[in-house]
UniProtKB/TrEMBL annotation:
The lineage of its organism: Bacteria, Bacillati, Bacillota, Bacilli, Lactobacillales. This is Glutamate racemase. It comes from the Bacteria. It comes from Ligilactobacillus hayakitensis DSM 18933 = JCM 14209. Substrate binds at D16, S17, Y48, G49, N80, T81, T189, H190. Pathway: Cell wall biogenesis; peptidoglycan biosynthesis. Pfam families: Asp_Glu_race (PF01177). Provides the (R)-glutamate required for cell wall biosynthesis.
Length: 262
C-alpha cells in the first residue's frame, strides 16, 4: 500500500463538547459512507458554551491532539462554540491538517424568506463571539437576526433527554418571547436532537435549520480537493470515544447516532 493510499484510509476525526456533534457525524456519514470516523465527545467538560474563550481553546487543542494521535487525516470541529473560539488558532497550529468548523446556518434561513425575522438559538459564548457578530452584520439588511441564548439545552441532550415534559417546559419558557420569528437557526450541534420538541413549541410554519449538512458538504469538497477521499467501496467504520470513559456515554452515543432527526 503506497503512502497516498494509506493516508486516504485514515479516519476523519470529529469532536464536540459532548454528544451534540453526533448530529454532524450523521450528516458526514450520510454523504461520505465509505469514510472511517472517530467521534470524540468531551462530555467530562460539557458544556463549552458557558466557559471562557481560553478554556474552550485549551480543551479544543487537547481534543485535536488526541484525534491526531489516533491518525486522523481531517478534523471536524462539530461544535459551534469551539469553532467560534478556537478554529483559527487550531488551523495556525496544525497547518498541514484540514479543519472543518460549524457556524449558524443564517444564510439559508435568510434566503428561505426575504425580509424575515430569524431567531438564532445558540450557547451564550457562541452569540458573544466575533464570528456571530460578523454573521449578524452581514445579513442585517436582508433580515432581522434575533439571538436566542439557550444555555441549558445542551445538558438535556447530554442526558439523552430529547422529548421529556421538563424539556418541553424549558423550551416553552425559553421561546415564549420569540413566537413571531419566521425561522429558527439551530446554532449548536446538540440542538438538532431536540428539533421535534422545538417544532412542537414553535409550530409547523416556522422554518428550522442547522449547519450540519453544510459542514458535511464542505468536508467532502475539501477531501476531494486534497485527494483524501477513501477509495474503498465498502462502508467505513465508526469509533465512539468519550472523555468521561463511561460505558453509558458510549452507549448513549450509539443511540443518538441511530436517532431519526426529521
Amino acid at each position: 500500500m503506497n503512502k497516498k493510499s494509506t493516508l486516504q484510509k485514515k479516519p476523519i476525526g470529529v469532536f464536540d463538547s459532548g454528544m451534540g456533534g453526533i448530529s454532524v457525524l450523521k450528516n458526514l456519514v450520510s454523504i461520505l459512507p465509505q469514510e472511517n470516523f472517530i467521534f470524540y465527545g468531551d462530555s467530562a467538560n460539557a458544556p463549552y458554551g458557558v466557559k471562557t474563550v481560553e478554556e474552550v481553546k485549551n480543551l479544543s487543542r487537547k481534543n485535536v491532539k488526541h484525534l491526531l494521535n489516533e491518525g486522523a487525516k481531517m478534523i471536524v470541529v462539530a461544535c459551534n462554540t469551539a469553532t467560534s473560539a478556537a478554529i483559527n488558532d487550531l488551523r495556525k497550529e496544525n497547518p498541514d491538517v484540514p479543519f472543518i468548523g460549524l457556524e449558524p446556518a443564517v444564510k439559508p434561513a435568510v434566503e428561505h424568506k426575504p425580509n424575515s425575522k430569524v431567531g438564532v438559538m445558540a450557547t451564550p459564548l457562541t452569540l458573544k463571539q466575533k464570528k456571530f457578530k460578523e454573521l449578524k452584520s452581514k445579513y442585517s439588511n436582508e433580515a432581522t437576526i434575533e439571538p436566542i441564548p439557550a444555555p441549558n439545552l445542551v445538558e438535556f441532550v447530554e442526558k439523552g433527554d430529547v422529548n421529556s415534559k421538563e424539556l418541553k417546559t424549558y423550551l416553552s419558557n425559553l421561546l415564549s418571547d420569540y413566537t413571531n420569528v419566521d425561522s429558527i437557526v439551530l446554532g449548536c450541534t446538540h440542538f438538532p436532537f431536540a428539533i421535534n420538541a422545538i417544532r412542537k413549541v414553535m409550530g409547523e410554519d416556522v422554518f428550522i435549520i442547522d449547519g450540519g449538512p453544510g459542514a458535511a458538504r464542505e468536508a467532502r469538497n475539501i477531501l476531494e480537493q486534497n485527494d483524501l477521499l477513501n477509495p474503498q467501496n465498502e462502508r467505513g467504520w465508526i469509533k465512539f470515544e468519550n472523555s468521561t470513559g463511561e460505558y453509558e456515554k458510549i452507549d448513549l452515543s450509539h443511540k443518538l447516532f441511530k436517532m431519526n432527526l426529521e
